[in-house]
C-alpha cells in the first residue's frame, strides 16, 4: 500500500456528554504542560483533534488557540438554518472555529436512531461548509459473530460516501469503531482492526476507482488507551485513533499523543 503525504496521523478525542466549561478549562490547563516539550521542539507533531460537547467549544477554542490542536464537534445537522429546534448547523460550527465534525457515531446510530441516509446528508453538509467529517462505521457484536463484519463496514462506508465526490474524498476521515468495543474496555485485536480497515480502503477504491483510498485517513476507535494504542499505530493500515473515555484525562491524552507521534515519525503535520 502506498502512503500519501496527506495521511498525517490523527489522534481524535470524543468527549461525548462530558465536561462543563470549567472542567474543559481545567483539562486545557493540565494538557498543555504535558506536551510542552514536544511543542517547543522541532519534532513532527501528529494532528490532534478534540471534540468536546457543543457548550465547551468556544472555551476550548480560546484556551488552545495558540497550540496545534484542532477543535471539532460531535454531531451536526444537515441543513444550513431554519426551523430545526435543538439542532446546530455546519455554519455555526465553522463560525466557532471548528475544523472537524464527527458524523454517524454508533451512539447516535444505535441510541438516537440516526439512519445511514441521514449520516450521508450530514457528511455532505459538513463538506459544503468546509468542515472535515469524521465518518464513523462499525459492526455490532452479532454482526461480527455472524461473519458479516466486512460486509457491514463496506456497506456503511459506501452509504456514508454516497454524496461525496472523488476530489473531496481526502477531506473525509473514516473511523472504524466496532460497536462492541466502544466504552467496554474490550478493544479489537489489531489484526482484526487492520483487516476491516483494509477492506474499508478497498471499498473506497471501488467507489471512486483507482487508488482513492491512499489519500483517505482511516482511524481505529474502541477502548483505545495509552497501554494499547501502539499496537494499532504500528499497523500501516491504521492512520490514528478516535478515543472516548481515555481522552477525558489530560495526562492520559498527552501520553496517547506522544505515542502516536513516536509510532509514526515518518509522517508529519508541520
Ligand atoms: C468513542 O466514543 O468513539 C470511543 C471509541 O469510546 P471509547 O474510547 O471510550 O471506547
Name the assembly state: single chain
CATH architecture: Alpha-Beta Barrel
How would you describe the shape?
A: globular
Query: What is the CATH third-level topology name?
Result: TIM Barrel
Order of helices and strands: EHEHEHEHHEHHEHEHEH
Record field, number of beta strands: 8
Please give the structural blueprint:
Blueprint: E1 10-14, H1 21-40, E2 47-51, H2 57-63, E3 69-73, H3 90-95, E4 100-103, H4 106-112, H5 116-128, E5 132-137, H6 141-145, H7 149-160, E6 173-176, H8 190-208, E7 217-221, H9 229-233, E8 240-243, H10 250-263
Parallel strand pairs: 1-2, 1-8, 2-3, 3-4, 4-5, 5-6, 6-7, 7-8
Bound molecules: phosphoenolpyruvate.
List keywords for this structure.
TIM Barrel; binds phosphoenolpyruvate; 8 strands; 8-stranded parallel β-barrel; 270 residues; 10 helices; globular
Describe this structure in words.
With 270 residues, the protein is an alpha/beta fold. It has one domain: TIM Barrel, CATH 3.20.20. 40% of the residues lie in helices and 14% in strands. It has ten helices and eight strands. The protein has an eight-stranded parallel β-barrel with strand order 1-2-3-4-5-6-7-8, surrounded by five helices. Helix 7 packs across helix 8 (190-208). The longest helix is centred in the N-terminal third of the chain and has 20 residues, at 21-40. The radius of gyration is 17 Å and the shape is globular. The protein starts with 9 loop residues before the first strand and ends in a 7-residue tail after the last helix. The mean pLDDT is 93. Phosphoenolpyruvate binds at residues 14, 16, 177, 182-183, 221-224, 242-246.
Amino acid at each position: 500500500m502506498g502512503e500519501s503525504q496527506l495521511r498525517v496521523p490523527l489522534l481524535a478525542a470524543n468527549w461525548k456528554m462530558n465536561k462543563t466549561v470549567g472542567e474543559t478549562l481545567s483539562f486545557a490547563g493540565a494538557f498543555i504542560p504535558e506536551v510542552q516539550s514536544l511543542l517547543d521542539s522541532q519534532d513532527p507533531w501528529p494532528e490532534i483533534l478534540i471534540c468536546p460537547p457543543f457548550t465547551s467549544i468556544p472555551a476550548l477554542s480560546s484556551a488552545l488557540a495558540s497550540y496545534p490542536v484542532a477543535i471539532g464537534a460531535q454531531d451536526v445537522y444537515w441543513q444550513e438554518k431554519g426551523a430545526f429546534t435543538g439542532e446546530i448547523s455546519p455554519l455555526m460550527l465553522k463560525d466557532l472555529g471548528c475544523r472537524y465534525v464527527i458524523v454517524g457515531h454508533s451512539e447516535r446510530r444505535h441510541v438516537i436512531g440516526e439512519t445511514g441516509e441521514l449520516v450521508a446528508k450530514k457528511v455532505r453538509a459538513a463538506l459544503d461548509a468546509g468542515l472535515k467529517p469524521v465518518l464513523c462505521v462499525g459492526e455490532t457484536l452479532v454482526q461480527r459473530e455472524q461473519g458479516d463484519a466486512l460486509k457491514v463496514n463496506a456497506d456503511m462506508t459506501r452509504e456514508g460516501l454516497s454524496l461525496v465526490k472523488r476530489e473531496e474524498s481526502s477531506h473525509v476521515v473514516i473511523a472504524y469503531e466496532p460497536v462492541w468495543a466502544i466504552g467496554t474496555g474490550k478493544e479489537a485485536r489489531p489484526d482484526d482492526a487492520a483487516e476491516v480497515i483494509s477492506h474499508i480502503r478497498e471499498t473506497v477504491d471501488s467507489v471512486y476507482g483507482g487508488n482513492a483510498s491512499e489519500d483517505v485517513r482511516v482511524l481505529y476507535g474502541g477502548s483505545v488507551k495509552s497501554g494499547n494504542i501502539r499496537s494499532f499505530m504500528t499497523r500501516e493500515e491504521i492512520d490514528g485513533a478516535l478515543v472516548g473515555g481515555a481522552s477525558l484525562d489530560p495526562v492520559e491524552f498527552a501520553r496517547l499523543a506522544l505515542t502516536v507521534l513516536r509510532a509514526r515519525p515518518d509522517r508529519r503535520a508541520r
